[in-house]
Amino acid sequence: MYLVSISFIGAFPDGDKLVSISSPNGGGGKTYHLMVDNGYWGIIGYYTTGWHVRLQNPNPDYNAGDLEPLLEFVKNQTID
Fold it and tell me: pLDDT tens, 12-23?
């Protein structure tokens, strides 16, 4: 089994927001869209150097420690 989509309420500095991680239709591979309050934030994907979060607009408010729980969840739900 592999991750197709998941939605949850995430705690952000400016309040709770709906977070969705989903595999694009026909996208294949190990790439997942990251949406926050129905706005596109970027992707979670597997690259030659491993799993990474690539935000569409770099945001200094979020560091690797903030994004690590998302990476761990996606890694644990996918087949290598």
Answer: 888 899 989 888
φ and ψ at residue 73, rounded to 5 degrees: -60, -50
Residue 77: in which H helix or E strand, if any? helix 64-77
Q: Between residues 16 and 64, which one has the greater pLDDT?
A: 16
Phi, psi of 19 (to 5 degrees): -110, 130
Q: What six digits make up the tokens of 19?
A: 């977070």
Residue found by looking up tokens 């869209």 in the block = 33
Nearest to 22 by CA among 43, 37, 1: 43
How many H-runs (helices) and E-runs (strands) does the chain carry? 1, 5
